[in-house]
Design goal:
The chain has about 425 residues and is α+β, with helices and mostly antiparallel strands. It has four domains: about 1-95, 3-Layer(aba) Sandwich (Rossmann fold); about 125-180, 2-Layer Sandwich (Dna Ligase, domain 1); about 190-325, D-amino Acid Aminotransferase, Chain A, domain 1; about 330-425, Phosphoribosylglycinamide synthetase, C-terminal domain (Glycinamide Ribonucleotide Synthetase, Chain A, domain 4, Alpha-Beta Complex). It is about 30% helix and about 25% strand. The protein has 14 helices and 24 strands. The chain has helices at about 10-20, 35-40, 50-60, 70-75, 80-85, 100, 105-115, 125-135, 160-170, 240-260, 295, 305-315, 390-405, 420-425; strands at about 1-5, 25-30, 40-45, 65-70, 90, 120-125, 140-145, 155, 180-185, 190-200, 205, 210, 215, 220-225, 230, 265-275, 280-285, 300-305, 320-325, 330-335, 360-365, 365-370, 375, 380-390. Strands 3-2-1-4-5 form a five-stranded parallel sheet, with helices on both faces. The protein has a five-stranded antiparallel sheet with strand order 12-15-20-24-21. A hairpin with an 8-residue loop joins strand 7 (about 140-145) and strand 8 (about 155). Helix 7 (about 105-115) packs across helix 10 and helix 8 runs antiparallel to helix 9. The protein is globular.
């Protein structure tokens, strides 16, 4: 089997790792990949948003299945291009990817489908946006409607702060094209959970729930980032909660997308806020595997992932995926100094050859220089993922591994899963 994975971050390294584990003799390619994927796949020097060269590469290498990692090529229509040429592609069409690419569209779908989500308004002009803000309770969330690399949602403690953010997006254009349309919504109280649904547009299969940590600092302080770590499974995500999520969120959304003539085939990521009384509301939809949640979820799988991705890509329904029992995974992101605003690149990286058992390091923003030295090449640099027989053990191993890896300016959170730890200690 010849498989191409599109993207070059930690998510794509984890996908390559999972594919290689399930199909050891697969011919595996990654475009553009990174030094981590280079160890288990053949990297192709093609940008993830270069649709012409990616479709040419699929033909040149006789690719049987393309797995598209990032949201940008999906929103640009890469899956459509590949399917038009008779190639199997895992990922939604450009029309369906609007669930992530346009928060305004996503809100409209949720309203039509009756999916629980925060009350909101959508605006392209500043004056009505400011009037709407003046009539709302505090706090508020102001979101750039378009793709903003996971950093387009700003939680505003006051109406004054919300006004300032609205001005930054609509008046000063600080979020570029992504902020030309904004969504202003009520702040949801509760705890976030990420749910991945493999779907062919009608049926769906849920992978283990996870929890991302967006803030840069410990105990969720500091600026919003693309994600500083994740863990899975989440005790809060009980069978009852997941059943409710399937019934009230996933199924009606798929039905509404089908009704609109844009069936969603691929991975539907529901970012949920779970209220204190256990009711899920949608914070956002993504149209692909989450990052860094993927790095925590995939190591928990026992088999069947590639079979399910291929079946969905070929229109043959959804296959079950086997999950390991009695284990937990924790991923700690190692970021560069200055992340997320101005990450410093170039520092040499040392990864010890003997990391603790159960630890896998996924590369995110790294490169090798002409001398073969591994160097920092992005804001989120490496992901230290640990799998163990208990959450506490996995958490300790992930943190230990993050401490062992060295590069100048290294930043990481030592408290990934702090809510889960508090919850388990309270129960114990």
């Amino acid at each position: 089997m010849r498989i191409l994975i599109v993207g070059g971050g930690g998510r794509e390294h984890a996908l390559c790792w999972a594919v290689r584990r399930e199909i050891p003799d697969a011919s595996l390619y990654c475009a553009p990949g990174n030094p981590g994927t280079a160890a288990i796949a053949e990297n192709l020097a093609i940008a993830a948003d270069d649709l012409d060269r990616l479709t040419d590469a699929a033909d040149m290498y006789g690719i049987d299945l393309t797995i598209i990692g990032p949201e940008v090529p999906l929103a640009m229509g890469l899956a459509d291009r590949l399917r038009a040429e008779g190639r199997a592609a895992f990922g939604p069409s450009a029309a369906a990817a609007q669930l992530e690419a346009s928060k305004a569209f996503s809100k409209d779908v949720m309203r039509a489908a009756g999916v629980p989500t925060a009350a909101s308004g959508t605006f392209t002009e500043l004056a009505p946006a400011l009037s709407f803000i003046d009539a709302q309770d505090e706090p508020l969330v102001v979101k750039a409607s378009g793709l903003a690399a996971g950093k387009g949602a700003v939680v505003c403690a006051s109406r004054n702060e919300a006004r300032a953010v609205a001005r930054a997006m609509l008046e000063r254009g600080e979020f570029g094209a992504a902020g030309q349309e904004i969504v202003i919504e009520a702040f949801l109280q509760g705890e976030e959970v990420s749910v991945f649904a493999l779907t062919d547009g009608q049926d769906a299969w849920l992978l283990p729930a996870s929890q991302d940590h967006k803030r840069l600092g410990e105990h969720d302080t500091g600026p919003n980032t693309g994600g500083m770590g994740a863990y899975a499974p989440v005790a809060l995500a009980t069978e009852a909660l997941l059943e409710r999520t399937m019934r009230r969120v996933i199924a009606p959304t798929l039905e509404e997308m089908w009704r609109r003539g844009s069936p969603f085939s691929g991975l539907l990521y529901a970012g949920l806020m779970v209220s204190p009384d256990g009711q899920p509301s949608v914070v956002e939809f993504n149209c692909r595997f989450g990052d860094p949640e993927t790095q925590a979820v995939l190591p928990l799988l026992e088999g069947g992932l590639v079979d399910s991705l291929e079946a969905i890509a070929l229109g043959r329904g959804v296959r079950p995926v086997r999950v390991r029992e009695h284990v937990a995974a924790v991923t700690t992101v190692l970021a560069a100094r200055g992340y997320p605003d101005a990450p410093e690149k170039g520092a040499a990286i040392t990864i010890p050859p003997a990391l603790p058992d159960g630890v896998t390091v996924f590369h995110a923003g790294t490169r090798r220089d002409e001398a073969g030295v591994l160097r920092v090449n992005g804001g989120r640099v490496l992901n230290a993922t640990a799998v163990a027989g208990s959450f506490d053990a996995a958490r300790a191993l992930s943190c230990q591994a993050a401490g062992m890896i060295e590069f100048d300016g290294k930043v990481f959170r030592g408290d990934i899963g702090w809510r889960e730890s508090g919850r388990r200690n309270a129960e114990g």
